[in-house]
Specification:
Layout (H helix, E strand, L loop, with lengths): L1 E6 L13 E6 L2 E5 L5 H5 L10 E3 L5 H4 L2 H13 L7 E6 L3 H5 L7 E6 L4 E4 L2 E7 L7 E7 L2 E5 L8 H6 L4 E5 L16 H11 L4 E4 L8 H10 L4 E3 L6 E2 L1
Parallel strand pairs: 3-4, 4-5, 5-6, 10-11, 11-12, 12-13
Antiparallel strand pairs: 1-2, 1-14, 2-3, 7-8, 8-9, 9-10
Helix pairs in contact: 6-7
């Protein structure tokens, strides 16, 4: 498996960048994880849009779905140009029926419901989910191939269940949207120290931080994570390929 950060920001993107999103690939299967603001532009640096095989959406906040409509329109344009393709599956939870319905569009994309109880096959990946603590229903996800796994926390406060969910992962990609003095003051997010504690307690091999704040010095978030986790940790780097 290989996974490439497409964007790293929470809320909205900095100039010429994108909100938190990742491209995960194996055996020539290409799956996008979240599709928020700026993602569609950034993604094209690494993969033609028509090569996407699936998308998985953690939740329906704008910084995770803002570019879905543009992606759907790109496929419709290709259809009009005679480059028809099978409907692209977009996996998203069914707890917001209005938003879930928007995942299906003119036979170009089709929404497929997911929930925390599911273990499903998406191409070569076995994918399982864990509900997070966030103001809206949101799912962490684990992508596994053979005996290797990549876990993405999505947006969440600390939740004990995430420790077992991430147990032994080769790579933990954790949100770290808060500075230490904001812990407990902003619902639905973790600080760097909490991401580090999660990585340490789950005994993962490597920690990558994402969904970062747009203010302050994000190096402080990495420092807090590294103090809590004895393994390697880093800020997600857009375009860098992480292999498992």
């Amino acid at each position: 498996m290989k996974i490439t950060p497409i964007g790293i920001w929470g809320g909205y993107p900095k100039a010429n960048s994108a909100t938190s999103s990742f491209l995960i690939e194996h055996d020539n299967f290409h799956c996008l994880i979240d599709c928020g603001s700026g993602v569609l532009s950034s993604l094209q640096n690494y993969l033609p849009l028509e090569k996407l095989d699936a998308i998985v959406i953690s939740h329906y906040h704008a910084d995770h779905i803002a570019d879905i409509g543009s992606l759907q329109y790109s496929r419709l344009i290709n259809f009009y140009l005679g480059k028809s393709a099978p409907a692209l599956p977009i996996y998203g939870h069914i707890h917001d029926p209005e938003q879930f319905e928007k995942l299906s569009y003119k036979d170009q994309t089709v929404g497929i419901g997911i929930s925390e109880e599911d273990i499903i096959q998406i191409g070569p990946f076995t994918v399982s989910f864990c509900r997070t603590i966030h103001p809206v229903y949101c799912l962490a996800m684990k992508f596994s191939v053979d005996n290797h796994s990549i876990v993405l926390t999505a947006d969440t406060e600390w939740r004990d269940e995430l420790v077992d969910f991430a147990r032994g992962a080769d790579l933990l990609i954790s949100e770290a949207n808060l500075y230490e003095d904001h812990v407990g003051k902003a619902p639905g997010h973790m600080a760097g120290s909490e991401a580090g504690i999660l990585a340490q307690q789950a005994d993962v091999k490597k920690l990558i931080l994402t969904h970062l704040p747009l203010h302050g010095n994000i190096g402080e978030i990495l420092e807090a994570a590294a103090e809590a986790f004895s393994g390697p940790s880093e800020i997600a780097e857009v375009g860098k390929v992480y292999s498992v």
